[in-house]
Amino acid sequence: MNDITFTGGNSNQRDFYLEAIDNTLEKGLAAKEVVCSITTGFRDIPSIRTAPGLNPYHASVADIGYGFDAVRGTIMRIHQGESISLAKDMLVFELDTLRISEKQLNPNFELAVKGAKPDTFYLIEQSRYLNLQIAESIKEAIRLGKAFLGPEWKISHARIQNIQAIPRL
Q1: Which of 81, 90, 95, 125 is most exposed by smallest CB count within 10 Å?
Q2: Residue 168: its pLDDT value, please?
Q3: How far is CA 4 from the centre of its chain?
Q4: 71 near 21, Cβ under 8 Å?
Q5: What is this structure's pTM?
Q6: What's the whole-number mean pLDDT along residues 11-32?
Q7: pLDDT in the model for residue 65
Q8: pLDDT at 2 over 90
Q9: How far apart are CA 72 and CA 51, in angstroms?
Q10: DSSP 3-state helix, strand, coil percentages of the chain (rounded to 5)?
């Protein structure tokens, strides 16, 4: 079938964890969609439009969107029974890449909204709240991934670190 197993695990446990990760990311994806709309709208606000952090912030939001899609795509392929070489490494790589993207989100956001006018504070606070929801969903998905793979998480993580993308902080 595929190489997603873990010590003492079975396909029901595998499916439980993969569904939990997918559901967690689905919640984060909903917040990301709203953040993406707000971020696009920031380009129409004169006090934010030329902020040095706006483009990196927008790129961080996009990276997270791509990351959500990547993890969810891998989970779907596993559920469909596709035999995927290095499936564990793919899952660890994709979740860890989400972690990196999440770490870029807040510094870029704060740089983008620095000096914003008071009439945008509601949007800024709403974005902060949504960014927190995104971060929490990513952290929970990683926690679930680590619980699912157990000690194999560290083994896979050690293998993928050499090919991990360099963060754009």
Answers
A1: 81
A2: 46
A3: 21
A4: yes
A5: 0.88
A6: 92
A7: 94
A8: no
A9: 33
A10: 80, 0, 20
What's the average model confidence in pLDDT over 125-154?
95
Structure token pair of residue 65: 């969107």
DSSP-derived secondary structure for 28-92: HHHHHHHHHHHHHHHTT-HHHHT-TTHHHHHHHHHHHHHHHHHHHHHHHHHHTT---TTHHHHHH
CA distance 127 to 32: 10
CA distance 85 to 82: 10
Task: Calculate the alpha carbon distances from 130 to 66, 70, 126, 133 in Å.
Answer: 17, 21, 6, 5
If we measure between CA atoms, which residue out of 71, 65, 112, 97 comes closest to residue 167? 97
The backbone region for 75, taken as left when phi is positive above 0, alpha when psi lies in -120 to 50, beta otherwise, is alpha
Binned at pLDDT 50, 70 and 90, residue 167 comes out as low
Identify the three-state secondary structure at position 80.
coil
Distance between CA atoms of 116 and 72, rounded to whole angstroms? 35
Helix axes 11-42, 121-149, angle to 10 degrees: 160
As a whole-number percent, the residues of the chain with pLDDT over 70 amount to: 90
